[in-house]
Amino acid sequence: MEKSKNKISFPATVLAPIVRFLRGEEKKLKTSRKELKNQDPFILGNRDSDNSVDADVAENVEHDRSYALRRQVNRSIVAIRKTLTRIKLGKYGICASCGKMIDTDRLAIRLTAEYCIDCEKQREKAKSK
Ligand SMILES: [Zn+2]
């Protein structure tokens, strides 16, 4: 263990339940990703060749919905994996950009927060440009 005065890291008693929670979430997300895939008419390959136009449209809508949701789920899974890695490295709660501690109120709302509120705002500003 490193001894450093200004390095505050969370004690294991705080991190253990977070890790448990995140692993549980990851499992749930993977299950819903599978379910979403099963709902996608394009992936199943069970489209009727003699589909009416209406049925085609419905399938397209269903595919788009399933695809959009799967992307969302994938993003959440990636965020959880990143967070678990950061916990392992002892970097949990430290802003990946400026290195400051992330506000614990913010972490309480978003366990997978990677940046402090200031850096997050800056990143969003840069994105919208
Ligand atoms: Zn920051």
Automatic annotation (TrEMBL):
Keywords assigned by UniProt?
Answer: Metal-binding, Zinc, Zinc-finger
What name does UniProt use for this protein?
Answer: Zinc finger DksA/TraR C4-type domain-containing protein
Q: Which GO terms describe its molecular function?
A: zinc ion binding
Endpoints of the signal sequence: none
Q: Which residues form a coiled coil?
A: none
Q: Which domain of life is it from?
A: Bacteria
Per UniProt, residues of the Zinc finger DksA/TraR C4-type domain are 90-124
Nucleus listed as a keyword = no
Q: Where are the zinc fingers (dksA C4-type)?
A: 95-119
